[in-house]
Amino acid sequence: MKKILITGGSGLVGSSFIGEEFIHLSSKDGDLRNKESIKSLIEKTNPEGIIHCAAKVGGVLGNTKYPGDFYHDNIMMNTNVIEEAKNKGIKKLVFFSSTCVFPDEVEYPLSPEKIHLGPPHQSNYAYAYAKRMGQVQIQAYKDQHDLNYFTVIPTNIYGPNDSYDMENGHVLPSLIHKMYLARESGEDFIVWGSGNPLREFIFSEDVAKLTMNLYRDYNGNAPVILSTSNETSIKNVVLMIADIFDFKGNIKFDTSKPEGQYRKPSDNSVIRQMYPDFKFTQMREGLEKSINWFIENYKIARK
Ligand code: NAP
Ligand code: GDP
Question: Is the Cβ–Cβ distance between 282 and 289 less than 8 Å?
Answer without folding.
Answer: no
